[in-house]
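Complex 394.
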Amino acid sequence: MAQTQHRNIVVIGGGIIGCTSAYYLTRHRSYSPSTTSVTVLEASTHGVAQGASGKAGGLVAKWAYPSELVDISFPEHTRLANEHNGKERWGWRFANCGNWEGRGETLTHRGTGGSLDTSSGVVSPRDESVHPDDLNWVKKHLTESYSPMSAPDGTAQVHPYLFTTSMMDLAMEKGATLLRGSATAIEQEVGCVTGVRYSDPIDGSSKVTPATHVVLSAGAWSPSIVASLPISATRAHSVTVRPNPEVTIAPYVLFTEIALPEGGVGTPEIYARPDNEIYACGLADDSPLPTNVDGVEVDQTACQSIWEQVASISTEFREATVEKRQACFLPVVDVRGGGPIIGEVRSIAKGLYVAAGHTCWGICNAPGTAKVISELIMGGRSIKMRNLEPSRYL
Ligand SMILES: Cc1cc2nc3c(=O)[nH]c(=O)nc-3n(C[C@H](O)[C@H](O)[C@H](O)COP(=O)(O)OP(=O)(O)OC[C@H]3O[C@@H](n4cnc5c(N)ncnc54)[C@H](O)[C@@H]3O)c2cc1C
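Predicted structure with flavin-adenine dinucleotide bound:
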């Protein structure tokens, strides 16, 4: 593309991948609002970060995968946090992270959460030496083993909703715009993208916004625009609670294996957050993907089950106020290396870029993905992501 030609970049999807892409596009050295426009097209009537990106755990890890993307993403997360005060703005911090195994205590009164007691004397004493000294929100005597997953500087966290909305706000400060609407098709002429057709949320009419470049970052919904993308959708539930403010919840992320008092094993992931929130998520299910993120249904039984599992090992969690019971869809790449899929899809149209299928590491890998996409579109790409290129998948 000639330097003087106006770039009209439309990013489909205001999740972490789309919003962070908008941020990197507007921070690229070749960017100027007079020569480049960046528009994020988002289908939710509630704005950005309404899907997995607003409801994930928020782990950012050096040991995540794929390594070629993590190697860019982790330092970029650190840089972004330093540059924009991520500590205050989106809860950036290093955290302890480990596998925790132990036993849950019986909840004597089953209910809606927040007011139950555990029965005493039903659990045999454990070897308390394996329990980290500062892990103050899990009962010591229930711990059977704890093994850290990385060195202290190997795992960090963000609040994913705050990170995603901050990326969008920072992109808008440099001239990016948010357009509400649901993309329905990529418009093209002689093999080049010319625009994105979308449904207007106000009157339901079909409109086209012009584009010289399109970034498809619609998470689990990406195949509704490019049907050949091998991305499927998996629903996962989570709950957040707010403990008593007098208790400072130690910074731990736990991958648990809880022997449940009623039999069976629960494996919730539990994230202590800097604002003293605790987040916990559970197993995935195969509920069908609704057409719009605003239509995601929450199964209250699944949320209650997560709450009970965590409450069975933590008084602080059990006595906390439940704030959110929610669900979202994870974009899963089921073939080859497991994705994500990042790059231009010339076999469909010149100017069409895919950045989707981030499975369980999209929060961690958003900055690396966005940096690659911005360099592919704006120039100066030095990073090779051959294993993630769309030609390997399509
Ligand atoms: C329970 C859970 C915990 C997780 N924990 C972590 C973690 O700790 N660390 C980590 O790195 N990752 C984690 N993940 C994974 C991470 O959440 C995802 O990989 C990431 O959020 C995907 O981001 P996305 O932007 O691709 O998709 P999404 O967040 O789903 O965003 C896609 C956006 O596209 C919009 N959209 C869809 N269709 C259209 C359309 N036709 N037109 C316009 N807009 C459209 C949607 O409304 C949505 O806003 C977790 C996921 C789950 C489910």
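The first strand starts at residue 7 and ends at 12.
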